[in-house]
# Entry
Amino acid sequence: MSSTSITCGCSCSSAPKLIFSCSGAADVGELADQAARRLTREGSGKMFCLAGIGGQVEGIIKTTQAASSILAIDGCSLGCAKKSLEVAVFRV
# Structure
């Protein structure tokens, strides 16, 4: 399982820390999803909707743009979570 993160340089400490996870059909997707949920429960950030990024849902895009950091957790080497965020112009 791999993860990539970015940090905003704007000193916006009140901005959310967002976690996007692969939740694919394979067992490794389930593990990535479980890791994101655990990080959310532990207060490391807030799990957010990767499908909303792919679907260009305005509210999800705006919230993600305002994030202080973005963590992408991919279950396998295909890197779907990371690539989905990059296509939407979020560098991770």
Notes: Residues 2-87 form one domain. Residues 16 and 63 are 8 Å apart (CA to CA). The radius of gyration is 12 Å. Residues 7-12 have pLDDT under 50 and may be disordered.
